[in-house]
Amino acid sequence: MHVLVCDPISPRGIAFFQARPEFKVTVLSKRLTEAELLPIVADVDAMVVRSETKVTRKVLEAATRLKVVGRAGVGVDNVDVEAATARGVVVMNTPAGNTVTTAELTFFMLGALARKIPAAHATMVAGKWDRKAFQGTEIQGKTLGILGAGRIGTEVGKRALAFGMRVVAYDPFLTEARAKSLGFEAASDPDAIYQQADFITVHMPVTKETREMLNASAFAKMKPGVRLVNCARGEIIHEGDLVAALESGKVAGAALDVFHVEPLPSDHKFRTLPNVVLTPHLGASTEEAQEKCGLEVAEVITGFLLTGEVRNSVNLPGVDAKTFELVKPYLVLGEKLGKVLGQLAPGPIDRLYITYGGKAQDLPQTDPVTRAVLRGFLSVAAGSGMKDINNINVRSAAAALGLSVEEKKSDEPVTFNEWLHVQAFNGSAKVISAGGTFFGSPNNPRIVRLYSQPVEIPISGHVLLINNKDRPGIVGFLGSVLGKHGVNIANMSLSRDAAGGEALTVLHLDSVPPQAALDELSKDPAITSARVLSL
């Protein structure tokens, strides 16, 4: 079997592959473009990449024998996971290898920024002795604002506490209880970070919500003289707005390891600013991290190719084939229930409670289904860009966010043959719940309970969820408004607590309704909310 190592990994990882007589190992001497990869991947069974090589749809189509792509690192945004899944290619990563390494770099960057160490060093090398020009600031007693309190953000916060800093963190999943246990203060939103922090560090994935979230508007809300550190993703900061803020003095300094375009262009304005510390994407660049990631990616790929073992997969549950066939329908249903709750739950959630009823009690494994529920919930509630969340690490990722999960097999009588029910809690208060089953066959899952009311929701496409007062003519009104805007209703489900009381209307649509349609619906006094769910 042919293993193609596209990007540099540790010698121990390469040696691990080469020790197997079953493998032919090719190590590329430089990163290849898509066009350069196409002619050499036809006979490749496994590809090993870091962040440099792009495994695109075209590369996957050309690699007709490819079985697995291993990413020596966390993020797999350089791999077209959807295309890989469609072609039956397993994508694996090494999620734990660079947590401490990136956290340490972040904190060292913060210290270098506070004490102007790189600029002072440069003048010393130039033969100068200019102490007055490099007066810095202490970090003890200062407030560190952390945007994203996952694995890395949490490790940075722990180090900050050891240096006497006050730590305020924002994360969609950070509850008051979790923050308190870490010694942090939980911020209700990013604005609370902007208004309080002397230093701000970013540890969020790139999503629609986070892309260029640190822009002119955000800088305007920050304290004068704030200092920024970004060792996560360059796209989170609007670079032009940061340059302006640095030049005006609103932002006293920035330490950056990641950028919109990498390598950073030689004429980029960042290179000319005296109050900027720059490093060339060194987050995972330590001997220890490279050793861990390189060896781990070799181990997981070897295990998969030789025995079929699945570890750290982002697109395949880690179970044997027989069990997988039994739980597969529940994986689909569970992930959709998680997505529904993730889109509807207001505020932070610290516990999910999953009940398996009816024939679902007899599943040989419920853990893969629970993981699917968590994955669906996290992918929406924590941002769709959390591509490092997979079936293997989803439990630890949830725990790092303070989200616990409980499972129960219930023999209480239920209306359906199979019953999967998920409740979301904040503390002791139940926030929302949803339940699902199968109609006729495992290939026909449905959500049949929402907000403790009976409904019927197909688990694909676009769903318009309306909370309204039960009154005559409401159905006709909904149909006329949607029809006027060219939106067709495929299915409808109605539920109410009493005649003339509170009602829940679920419309399965052929297309996403335009905002104008939602605005028109919301103007009706009988309608209290109208939300579109993406399933």
What is the topological layout?
Elements lengths: L1 E4 L5 H8 L5 E4 L6 H4 L8 E4 L7 H6 L5 E4 L9 H6 L3 E3 L6 H17 L1 H9 L17 E5 L3 H12 L3 E5 L5 H7 L2 E2 L3 H7 L2 E4 L13 H6 L4 E5 L8 H10 L2 E6 L19 E3 L8 H21 L13 H24 L6 E8 L8 H15 L12 H7 L3 E7 L7 E9 L2 E10 L6 E6 L2 E6 L3 E8 L4 H11 L4 E8 L5 E8 L5 H8 L4 E8 L1
Parallel strand pairs: 1-2, 1-3, 3-4, 4-5, 6-7, 6-9, 7-8, 9-10, 10-11, 11-12, 13-14
Antiparallel strand pairs: 13-15, 15-16, 16-17, 17-18, 19-21, 19-22, 20-21
Helix pairs in contact: 1-12, 5-7, 13-14
Mean pLDDT reading: 90
Strand order of the largest sheet: 8-7-6-9-10-11-12
Q: Considering the protein shown, what is the CATH homologous superfamily of the largest domain?
A: NAD(P)-binding Rossmann-like Domain
Indicate the percent of residues in helices: 25-40%
As residue ranges, the low-confidence spans are none
Tally of individual domains: 4
- The CATH topology of the largest domain: Rossmann fold
**Shape designation:** globular
Number of strands: 22
- Radius of gyration over C-alpha positions, nearest whole angstrom: 26 Å
Structure class: alpha/beta
SS summary, helix count = 17
Oligomer: single chain
Q: Calculate the terminal CA-CA distance, rounded to whole Å.
A: 39 Å
Instruction: Kindly provide the name of the CATH class of the largest domain.
Output: Alpha Beta
Query: What is the CATH-assigned architecture of the largest domain?
Result: 3-Layer(aba) Sandwich
